[in-house]
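Field log, afternoon session.

UNIT: design team B
ACTIVITY: writing a sequence onto a fixed backbone
BACKBONE:
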């Protein structure tokens, strides 16, 4: 196995161009996510995460063309960590040096847990999450981003989670008109920029380049004070000189940190692997999901030691990278190197960026994250699917990110098992005809039909099809219990490739019940694996061939007649 998955130098020009383009897109997003996650002074930490995590994820990940960096779900989770720690007395002020080491500890824990998911080869299970749950969850993340950015957009200081933000907005006196103007200009740029221009300059970067100088020109602090308006909140001073090492604090509030780490690991895995699927579709390749999780986990663990926000595979940045020619990990690493160069020399310029501008960018991100296509038509596709998606969305927004996903997966699995069970029982009903004249008996050979005709109603041929799950067990027993007028039971499992333990127990009880009433009971058509399983459960009359079982049953019934 190659040390760097998918690395080659045959596409160097395309990789360099793709990485450069992705970096241009990533710059405003990284700053915006940092500010959203950590509050005032937090923008730079989003850039740290894009540099550190983006490079390492590209180096060790399993999706060659993927670009990683801070994303909406990860920033929302970090914001939740900050709120949880603030609730137990930790100062939100990053300058105090109390909050950041704790948050970075959660980032490191999340990275290590995510890497363990890959080490234990659980990657393929992450992608088995039903689309209704993923859609509801991602739409919920989009709604959270929108709610959390309303405050900065209108110039009102808000902190905490969704409900806290809503409460602060309702209690506030009036918005800052200058902030509203800056945010509105930002939305106008990101929504109205023509496609031919966006091909060359991404709309978030264009908003950064246009609105920032306009805000300094039109809404400088002195002019705003003359009109009795509070000055615009801006990012503020950004340290120069590269990444900033920090020693994570694992010694305090470890329960909060462990829970946050688990959430970051799960969200990072889902976010990254979904983006990997998008990359596969664009490049016509196949990613290595377990390797991707290991790479993303290592990236986040390392990012936590240099004050970087946690990262995941970023869909928009990955798509732009691929469309610009990126194919290998060189593109993702190039993206990080370019951002590092910006970090070293562009601190003074970035410090003047208004937070309302970043809020406008994130509002566009939040709207893009919401799965509008599925959200608006889910009710026409399936009432159950729609109800599940909306339930996950509401739980994600108003309860808890991780519990929203877990409860959604639990309900989705119950619905899936119920659907499979109904199909299994329907097959059972369709094929449960003892008479050879029935239409459903056409799967029988002529010799088999002759034997069944000779036995008449004294023989009950009970046929099962498909994998038998635990959900079908109760149905098997209940259906057989309704049948009384027969002397011999032949359970045909020729078309059952596998049978769960619970279903095997149901078969055992079916056979025991028949034998306790003096009836002949035979199982036919079991493969080698099923035969061994049934014999371990005490079912000894198991024959590999249905015709053989019918001949045996006919003989037994004939012996009974002679006696």
């Amino acid at each position: 196995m190659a040390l760097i998955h998918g690395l080659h130098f045959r596409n160097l020009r395309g990789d360099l161009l793709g990485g450069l383009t992705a970096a241009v897109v990533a710059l405003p997003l990284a700053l915006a996510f940092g500010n959203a996650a950590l509050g005032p002074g937090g923008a730079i930490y989003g850039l740290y995460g894009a540099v550190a995590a983006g490079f390492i994820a590209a180096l060790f990940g399993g999706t060659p063309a993927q670009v990683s960096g801070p994303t909406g779900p990860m920033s929302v989770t970090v914001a939740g960590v900050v709120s949880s720690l603030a609730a137990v007395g930790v100062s939100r002020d990053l300058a105090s040096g109390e909050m950041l080491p704790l948050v970075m500890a959660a980032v490191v824990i999340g990275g290590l847990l995510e890497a363990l998911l890959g080490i234990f080869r659980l990657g393929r299970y992450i992608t088995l999450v039903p689309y209704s749950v993923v859609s509801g969850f991602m739409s919920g993340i989009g709604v959270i981003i929108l709610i959390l950015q309303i405050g900065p957009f209108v110039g009102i200081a808000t902190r905490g989670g969704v409900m806290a933000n809503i409460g602060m907005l309702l209690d506030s006196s009036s918005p800052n008109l200058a902030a509203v103007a800056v945010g509105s200009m930002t939305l106008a740029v990101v929504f109205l920029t023509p496609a031919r221009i966006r091909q060359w300059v991404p709309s978030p970067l264009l908003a950064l380049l246009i609105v920032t100088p306009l805000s300094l020109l039109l809404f400088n602090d002195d002019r705003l004070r003359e009109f009795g308006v509070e000055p615009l909140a801006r990012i503020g001073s950004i340290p120069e000189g590269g990444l900033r090492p920090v020693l994570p604090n694992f010694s305090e509030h470890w329960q909060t940190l462990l829970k946050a780490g688990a959430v970051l690991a799960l969200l990072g895995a889902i976010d990254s692997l979904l983006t990997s699927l998008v990359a596969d579709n664009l490049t016509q390749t196949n990613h290595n999901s377990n390797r991707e999780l290991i790479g993303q986990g290592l990236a986040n663990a390392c990012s936590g030691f240099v004050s970087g926000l946690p990262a995941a595979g970023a869909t928009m940045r990955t798509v732009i990278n691929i469309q610009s020619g990126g194919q290998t990990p060189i593109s993702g690493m190039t993206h990080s190197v370019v951002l590092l160069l910006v970090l070293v020399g562009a601190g003074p310029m970035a410090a003047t960026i208004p937070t309302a501008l970043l809020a406008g960018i994130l509002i566009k991100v939040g709207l893009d994250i919401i799965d509008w296509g599925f959200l608006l038509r889910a009710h026409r596709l399936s009432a159950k699917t729609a109800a599940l998606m909306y339930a996950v969305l509401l739980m994600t927004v108003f309860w808890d990110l991780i519990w929203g996903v877990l409860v959604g997966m639990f309900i989705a699995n119950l619905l899936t098992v119920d659907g499979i069970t109904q199909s299994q029982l329907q097959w059972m009903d369709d094929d449960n005809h003892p008479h050879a004249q029935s239409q459903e008996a056409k799967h029988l050979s002529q010799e088999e039909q002759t034997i069944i005709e000779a036995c008449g109603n004294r023989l009950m041929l009970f046929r099962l099809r498909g994998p038998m799950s635990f959900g079908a067990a109760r149905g098997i027993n209940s259906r057989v219990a309704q049948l009384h007028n027969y002397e011999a039971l032949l359970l045909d499992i020729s078309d059952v490739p596998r049978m769960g333990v619970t279903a095997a127990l149901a078969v055992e009880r079916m056979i025991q019940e028949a034998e306790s009433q003096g009836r002949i009971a035979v199982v036919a058509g079991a493969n080698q694996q099923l035969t061994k399983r049934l014999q371990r459960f005490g079912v000894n009359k198991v024959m590999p061939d249905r015709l053989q079982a019918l001949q045996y049953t006919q003989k037994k019934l004939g012996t009974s007649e002679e006696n």
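LOG NOTE: The CA atoms of residues 512 and 521 lie 8 Å apart.
NEXT ACTIVITY: expression trials, pending approval
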